[in-house]
């Protein structure tokens, strides 16, 4: 009778282990990633600050294209009983073309701030997605380890029953208890990691760190649509990171043109009315002041050199940034490719083989052909394979999220 109960317990344990990896995660509706993304776009302070910087840059354009404020002149002169009242207006007029160039520079700066805003959106969303996928892996890991713990508890009861009838050693019971304790320690670490990820996501969403959060929704494997060459081409075409530096380069070109235009003089036009109170006569006076670039050797010429050097620095920054982004794309594509291979291998071969190995170990343990350690190793091997499956699935989606954050569209 005792032997029949042992076989029944082990058979039920084998049935529980035959579930596919998809069922190892938590069930029920979870928080949707799209919902979190929209909340981040609406509330994230980094995104909102970047938007306000863009709005401020746009407001600069009409200011620098407008003439300087005019000056109103009021005066009174009393010399040897000759009394005169003076009143007039003066207007500074930059050399033709200077205001237009200043407006173009401000416009390029506004365009750059717009690209910075778009880049900030992509960066924040990429961070959010990576944290979301990490959180999903933590939930999956807790589910896998929780199921392993329940099976180990069943194995402990089985080993106790076999030990009671003299068919197993006491060390089988102790080993099962040790593995349960190790699982409890890993679960405690995962719970701490889950709380940290909750706080990180809440920070991105501009929530309080301790605000509650539901479990994440299920994720599905997303195949990559573009090749490495296509992603590199899209980087040059649509990436706001590069487009922002390109706008900065255009701004440098216009700054050089403005610096060269500073060799030309600015003007100031004065119109002054006169009233001789003693003689009762009126008159007027018109003057044109010219600002002569007398110190051009140490001022205007050096200004051109400064503008040229600044533009060259921006060009080199653009080249360095492009190389960095290309390297990051190459690395993320390699990580996504590796993860894709491992996900398919684990799902289609390794995990099914691990289940068969465990089932075989269970059958052999029943008839005494293998020891408890072999059975335990088969269970732990299956557990680690399932954890690796969920880890590689999360890493694949994280790599795609980073690529999307670089090029601005789904890779």
Structural class: alpha+beta
| Main sheet attributes: strand count, strand direction, barrel closure | 4 strands, antiparallel
Going across the biggest sheet, name each strand in turn: 1-2-3-4
Distance between the ends: 61 Å
Integer-rounded radius of gyration: 37 Å
Outline the low-pLDDT stretches: 1-28
Number of helices: 9
CATH architecture: Up-down Bundle
Along the chain, the helix and strand elements come as: HHHEEHHHHEEHH
What is the CATH class? Mainly Alpha
Mean pLDDT: 88
Q: Give the CATH topology.
A: Outer membrane efflux proteins (OEP)
Total separate domains: 1
Number of β-strand runs = 4
CATH superfamily: Outer membrane efflux proteins (OEP)
Descriptive overview:
The protein is of the alpha+beta class and 411 residues long. It has a single domain (2-15, 29-407), classed as Outer membrane efflux proteins (OEP) (Up-down Bundle). It is 69% helix and 10% strand. The protein has helices spanning 2-17, 33-43, 45-64, 98-164, 170-204, 228-238, 240-261, 300-366, 372-407, and strands at residues 71-79, 82-93, 266-276, 281-291. The chain has a four-stranded antiparallel sheet with strand order 1-2-3-4, with no helix packed on it. Helix 3 (45-64) packs antiparallel against helix 4, helix 6 (228-238) runs antiparallel to helix 8 (300-366) and helix 7 (240-261) runs antiparallel to helix 8. The longest helix has 67 residues, at 98-164. The two termini are 61 Å apart. The model is unreliable at 1-28 (pLDDT under 50).
């Amino acid at each position: 009778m005792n032997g029949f109960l042992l076989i029944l317990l082990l058979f039920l344990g084998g049935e529980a282990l035959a579930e596919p990896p998809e069922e190892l995660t938590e069930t029920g509706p979870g928080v949707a990633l799209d919902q979190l993304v929209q909340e981040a776009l609406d509330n994230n302070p980094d995104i909102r600050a970047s938007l306000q910087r863009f709005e401020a840059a746009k407001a600069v354009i009409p200011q620098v294209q407008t003439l300087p404020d005019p000056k109103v002149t009021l005066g009174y002169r009393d010399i040897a009983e000759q009394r005169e009242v003076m009143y007039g207006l003066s207007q500074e007029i930059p050399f033709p073309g200077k205001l237009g160039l200043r407006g173009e520079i401000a416009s390029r700066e506004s365009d750059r701030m717009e690209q910075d805003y778009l880049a900030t959106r992509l960066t924040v969303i990429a961070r959010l997605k990576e944290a979301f996928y990490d959180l999903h892996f933590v939930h999956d890991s807790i589910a896998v380890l929780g199921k392993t713990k329940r099976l180990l508890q069943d194995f402990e009861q089985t080993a106790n029953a076999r030990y009671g009838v003299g068919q197993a050693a006491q060390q089988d019971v102790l080993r099962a208890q040790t593995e349960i304790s190790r699982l409890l320690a890993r679960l405690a670490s995962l719970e701490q990691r889950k709380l940290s990820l909750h706080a990180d996501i809440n920070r991105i969403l501009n929530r309080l760190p301790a605000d509650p959060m539901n479990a994440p929704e299920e994720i599905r494997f997303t195949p990559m649509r573009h090749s490495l060459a296509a992603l590199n081409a899209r980087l040059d075409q649509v990436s706001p990171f590069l487009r922002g530096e390109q706008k900065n380069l255009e701004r440098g070109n216009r700054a050089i043109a403005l610096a060269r235009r500073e060799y030309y003089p600015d003007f100031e036009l004065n119109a002054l009315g006169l009233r001789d109170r003693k003689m009762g006569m009126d008159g007027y006076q018109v003057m044109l002041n010219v600002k002569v670039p007398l110190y051009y050797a140490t001022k205007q010429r050096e200004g051109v050199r400064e503008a040229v050097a600044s533009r060259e620095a921006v060009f080199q920054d653009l080249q360095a940034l492009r190389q960095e982004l290309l390297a990051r794309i190459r690395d993320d594509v390699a990580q996504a490719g590796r993860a894709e291979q491992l996900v398919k291998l684990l799902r289609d071969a390794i995990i099914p083989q691990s289940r068969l190995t465990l089932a075989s170990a269970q059958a052999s343990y029943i008839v005494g052909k293998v020891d408890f350690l072999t059975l335990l190793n088969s269970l732990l091997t299956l557990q680690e394979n399932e954890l690796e499956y969920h880890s590689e699935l999360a890493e694949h989606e994280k790599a795609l999220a980073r690529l999307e954050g670089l090029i601005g569209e789904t890779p």
